[in-house]
Amino acid sequence: MVEFQVENMTCGSCANVISKSIKTIDPNVQVSVDVVSQTVRVDSILPENKLASLIEECGYPVSTSTVVER
């Protein structure tokens, strides 16, 4: 599982856009978005850099990423 620190997320719509984008590429993914802490946790078979790219393509810059124990 990877946790991304994501800038400029301010509402539930932001969370939905990011979740849908990742689920389009990996339908079996588990995505948890916390708008208050501006974090996105993803459990996916996709590589970390691909996940970061998907988030950034939605218009939300990724400032850091951390591998988190499951």
UniProtKB/TrEMBL annotation:
Keywords: Metal-binding. Coiled coil: none annotated. It comes from the Bacteria. Gene3D superfamilies: 3.30.70.100. SUPFAM superfamilies: HMA, heavy metal-associated domain. The keyword Transit peptide does not apply. The keyword Repeat does not apply. Residues 1-63 form the HMA domain. PROSITE patterns: HMA_1 (PS01047), HMA_2 (PS50846). It holds the Pfam family HMA. CDD domains: HMA. This is Copper chaperone. It comes from Leptospira yasudae.
